Amino acid sequence: MKTFAVVLACLALVSASAIDFSNVKRVEELDIFWEQLDPQLQVLRPSPESRIVNGQEARPNQFPYQALVLSFFDGGNSGLCGGTILTPNFVMTAAHCVVIGTVATHGTVVLGAHNRQVVEATQQRFSFDQINAHPSYIAALLRNDIATVRLSAPAVFNEFVQPIDIPALSDTRTFAGMTGIISGFGRTSDETGSPASDVVMYSSNPILTNADCAASWNSILIGAQNICLSGAGGRSVCNGDSGGPLAVQDSGRSLQVGIASFVHVNGCASGMPSGFVRVSHYLQWIADNSDVVLRN
């Protein structure tokens, strides 16, 4: 049952005209986002000097499951995030990408994009039709930081737009030690004023055990609902990548094991582990709040 859903007016496919990103901020740079966080978590807030970093540009259609999620909130605020394609009708993202104090009033999802600043023939654009944020999402602690968005029309799958697999119900792996792959349109540098990337970037690092992750992070943050990626080599998600995927290669297919949730105040390239929502912890919720069919 969708206990925390906002049903927006059914909207048609968004026009293929260029989206004006000039006034769009990454969600993590909105003051209203930080105002809702617990004082103990204000340490995560990036300073002006410390904002996927140390990654490389993806090939077009290398990550056909990648979504761009643009949310609009009361007060004229708008936030840029990532997401992933679950089915023709639903994408998955972080709750903090669509709920900041209140639920987003409306939004746009772009699929099949390589360069978000260009109207590419591969792109499919949709309005939000429904937002499902986890009913136990605690903004102050970034707990249960997961949401699904129903698209205003079904996506058309092709070589540039494809769903990602999520773990089966019987999959008890922690994925620690496996190579995690991150992708997104977020910030590519810790340099002051560094913009979000126009193109899809990606990087990889080992996935950590939760114990190793908690040894680096404050224990208030890391729980069974989290999964962490090593920050070795300064490789990490960054501002604007929130809601995007942490994936592993499993029998030749991409399997999403995490949703980008937080990075350290010292900077995306600081070497600190980045924190993700553990997808396998929320499988039944995902099924209940989308039309994905779980594998046994």
Automatic annotation (TrEMBL):
<keyword id="KW-0720">Serine protease</keyword>
<dbReference type="Pfam" id="PF00089">
    <property type="entry name" value="Trypsin"/>
</dbReference>
<protein>
    <recommendedName>
        <fullName>Peptidase S1 domain-containing protein</fullName>
    </recommendedName>
</protein>
<feature type="domain" description="Peptidase S1">
    <location>
        <begin position="52"/>
        <end position="291"/>
    </location>
</feature>
<dbReference type="InterPro" id="IPR018114">
    <property type="entry name" value="TRYPSIN_HIS"/>
</dbReference>
<dbReference type="InterPro" id="IPR033116">
    <property type="entry name" value="TRYPSIN_SER"/>
</dbReference>
<dbReference type="InterPro" id="IPR009003">
    <property type="entry name" value="Peptidase_S1_PA"/>
</dbReference>
<comment type="similarity">
    <text>Belongs to the peptidase S1 family. CLIP subfamily.</text>
</comment>
<keyword id="KW-1015">Disulfide bond</keyword>
<keyword id="KW-0378">Hydrolase</keyword>
<feature type="signal peptide">
    <location>
        <begin position="1"/>
        <end position="16"/>
    </location>
</feature>
<dbReference type="InterPro" id="IPR001314">
    <property type="entry name" value="Peptidase_S1A"/>
</dbReference>
<dbReference type="InterPro" id="IPR001254">
    <property type="entry name" value="Trypsin_dom"/>
</dbReference>
<keyword id="KW-0645">Protease</keyword>
<keyword id="KW-0732">Signal</keyword>
<dbReference type="InterPro" id="IPR043504">
    <property type="entry name" value="Peptidase_S1_PA_chymotrypsin"/>
</dbReference>
